[in-house]
Design goal:
Blueprint (H helix, E strand, L loop, with lengths): L2 H12 L12 E4 L6 E6 L7 E6 L8 H12 L7 E5 L4 E5 L6 H4 L5 H18 L10 H8 L2 H9 L6 H20 L2 E4 L8 E2 L8 E2 L6 E4 L2 H7 L8 H17 L8 H28 L10 H14 L4 H10 L11
Helix pairs in contact: 4-9, 5-7, 6-10, 7-10, 8-10, 10-11, 11-12
Length: about 350
């Protein structure tokens, strides 16, 4: 038992209210890619008989953005956990328990149409109802910091490779194009990690339960959709993914969201936004392994790289980046893509 759990138990014991928390029942619920940890606790005073405790060491994590985003999203009609109690100074939250069944665990060809439709509807609700002005902007500096994780962590640290001067220039040019594309899109509230491991299967008509929203920002309208449909943890064939993308675009237009009236233009933004995200994710997964001792994410890197290569190969402006990705992955350069 570490010192944080002892501190957490003391906090639980100090709480007043009708939850009837049982401090001795605290047990691990799930981990996180950050320094946050989650525990489940028996609570006969709550509807489901349990609650979730978030442990976010204040020297490493700040609970305030989580609390703020939960309030904004809840008011916007998004199903997020209720916060029963909070101690921001100690880094503890007592949350509604959404159970342990993620979308990822139940997605298959039979369940996917309904689950993705519900996730699409919830995303539209988020973008319509949660004011983007309540969040910091997803600006050029942040977009660039994210994409800049790719070279030092994935290419150099993980693969043990280095880029030539020409390749560095090609990456810099692609980086600029991707960031410019993102900044040119209409601005909405962006969850920033809207995918199958952060969407929970709930009873009744509350699906999905949305988690891990503390990094929400005001940014590109395609960002969360590409997180959902080009998920790092599960992939669908291109025809199916395209069908879901079109359905979401139509739903967004009907809701009055400022999506491009030309689906081709919207889809190009979707693809380029996804490329920025997937390069970032590759850097993050490599960093989680080599810096944080969490190698489990590496198994999903081939899927994420596959998304990135496919998009880069489809656009002439991104041909040099496609060649770079092919080279570091040991793929023969396509004609016209050599340096």
């Amino acid at each position: 038992m570490d010192a944080r759990i002892e501190q957490l138990q003391r906090w639980v014991s100090s709480l007043c209210g009708a939850w009837q928390l049982e401090a001795a029942s605290i047990a691990p619920a799930s981990g996180d890619a950050s320094f946050r940890r989650y525990f489940r606790i028996a609570s006969p005073g709550l509807d489901h008989g349990t609650a979730i405790l978030m442990d976010a060491p204040p020297d490493k994590e700040d609970c305030a953005p989580f609390v703020h985003a939960a309030e904004v999203l809840h008011v916007g009609g998004v199903t997020v956990p209720r916060i029963h109690a909070a101690d921001l100074a100690q880094g503890f939250l007592l949350l509604e328990d959404f159970g342990s069944v993620t979308y990822l665990e139940v997605l298959d060809e039979r369940t996917a149409p309904a689950l993705y439709s519900e996730a699409s509807a919830a995303l539209v609700k988020l973008q319509v109802g949660a004011p983007a002005g309540r969040f910091a902007p997803y600006d050029a500096a942040l977009l660039e910091r994210e994409i800049d994780l790719f070279i030092p962590w994935y290419v150099e640290c993980h693969l043990g490779l280095s880029l030539s001067a020409t390749e560095e220039q090609a990456f810099a040019q692609a980086r600029r194009r991707l960031v410019d594309c993102a900044l040119a899109q209409p601005v909405v509230t962006v969850h920033r990690d809207y995918h199958s491991r952060n969407l929970m299967l709930l009873p009744g008509d509350r699906n999905p339960g949305v988690l891990d929203f503390q990094d929400a920002v005001a940014g590109p309208i395609t960002y969360d959709l590409v997180s959902l449909l080009r998920d790092a943890y599960i992939a669908w064939d291109e025809e199916q993914m395209l069908d879901w993308c079109i359905r979401h675009w139509e739903r967004a237009k009907k809701a009055g969201l400022p999506v491009d009236s030309d689906f081709g233009a919207f889809y190009r933004d979707f693809e380029w936004m996804g490329l920025q995200r997937h390069l970032k994710v590759l850097g993050i997964f490599a960093r989680l392994c080599h810096r944080d001792g969490k190698p489990g994410y590496l198994k999903d890197c081939p899927r994420v790289m596959g998304y990135a290569q496919a998009v880069a190969r489809r656009y002439v402006d991104l041909a040099p980046l496609a060649a770079l990705l092919d080279r570091i992955e040991g793929v023969e350069h396509r004609v016209g893509h050599t340096f």
